[in-house]
Amino acid sequence: RRSSPAQTEFYQAAEEVLECLRPLFERSPHYLDHGIIERIVEPERQIMFRVCWTDDAGKVKVNKGYRVQFNSALGPYKGGLRFHPSVTSGTIKFLGFEQIFKNALTGLPIGGGKGGSDFDPKGRSDGEIMRFCQAFMSELHRHIGPTTDVPAGDIGVGAREIGFLYGQYKRLTGRYEGVLTGKSLNWGGSLGRKEATGYGAVYFAENMLEARGETLAGKTCLVSGAGNVALYTIEKLHELGAIPVSCSDSRGTLHDPRGVDLALLKELKEVKRVSLEAYRETHPEARYLPASDYPADGHAVWRLEGDVAFPCATQNELTEADAETLLGNGVTCISEGANMPSTAAAVDRFLAARVAYGPGKAANAGGVATSQLEMAQNSSMQQWPLEKVDEKLKAIMANIHRQCAETAAEFGDPTNLVLGANIAGFRKVADAMIEQGVV
Ligand code: NDP
Predict the structure, then answer these.
(1) How far apart are CA 115 and CA 107, in angstroms?
(2) For the chain, which terminal residue's Cβ has fewer other Cβ atoms within 10 angstroms, N or C?
(3) Is 114 part of the annotated catalytic residue set?
(4) Which amino acids does the record list as binding substrate (predicted)?
(5) Domains, the chain, with CATH or none
(6) Residue 368 alpha carbon, nearest atom of ligand 1
(7) What pLDDT score was predicted for residue 24?
């Protein structure tokens, strides 16, 4: 039932999941009898609120704030906050819906939620970011808590924003508790959390390649994005002897065929917060393609030559024409660090070609899994060493891959990890909903 033209991304995500569930419903019609489809596509609660703050010139600004508490069958709502001008209620709903199944796949006790704002952090001073975050939390604090709803970061929300949000939560409630994840290591964060989504996407690619008797070593890798997920994807690829040759931001794409200089990239993106174009000041041999020169039917990064692709920027950044080019250039593995980066038609291409394709809800689940490890450390007042967190992350990613592959095989399509991820994630949530009664 499509009831709102503003929810196109949500319908795209829901249609993909429901299409995959057909064979499950044929075998197990009791899910239909329990009304699970109607219940699972409807959020338990959606909160929309006004966020008023003042800019550095003293001018009053107003943004929209959102939190979707989608499904709590498996645990407290868990999912990030996105601050980006493109954010609508439909964006947050799509992300919250995906989060339900992703969180289920981790095997950890976390339900699905997501939130954010149409606030644009670009070009804002630290003072403006702080005032916005404080205003955002002035409403959000009523709806969250360490055993009810635990937000984290996403696009536009990193360690700086989580710090300001946490400070305001503490000021308003007087409580020092694990209500946000992605916190600084100084005050309750987990070692390995900032790296977890990118590292996890690389571990997932390794699992997919291993199943085909290959490894990442020596492979040329195309990465999009230049934020949290992309940076740590590139870092892990370097560590494993692969050659990550690209990254991108909203303004353009960088191609360095000798391998991206990670230290410089971190300096540009984490410290200076400038355009990728600045990379060429010290590396003139690298190529920079501004977004204005992209092909009309896709993204420049997917027109480069490589063996493995890691879309790590945003939704629908990889089109059918991009998929066709990637396949034509011999890419055999795609591991999605971003949420729903490939359009539905691009996914169909990958599945038809039977390449190793890891959908975001499986391949990028390492971030939320490590957020749950942060919650576990907070509630037991401990801090685990990095080795322990990384070992758990690796095991969780291997387990997600195994579940997806086994479920895909159970339903007669062994290479289709989209089918496997959707059915395996759905079954866990639906079984819990049935056991908990009609609520
Ligand atoms: P960041 O804000 O750190 O980085 C996002 C990157 O993508 C930036 O380089 C940004 O460029 C680029 N980007 C964002 N929107 C667009 C756009 N519309 N067009 C082109 N480029 C764009 O976010 P993250 O790295 O945290 O998130 C990236 C993806 O990974 C998202 O899909 C997110 O939902 C997903 N994800 C993140 C997790 C996490 O732990 N952080 C966990 C699981 C999934 P610019 O700076 O120029 O805007």
Answers:
(1) 22
(2) N
(3) yes
(4) 78, 99, 102, 153, 371
(5) 43-177 (3.40.50.10860), 194-363 (3.40.50.720)
(6) 42
(7) 98
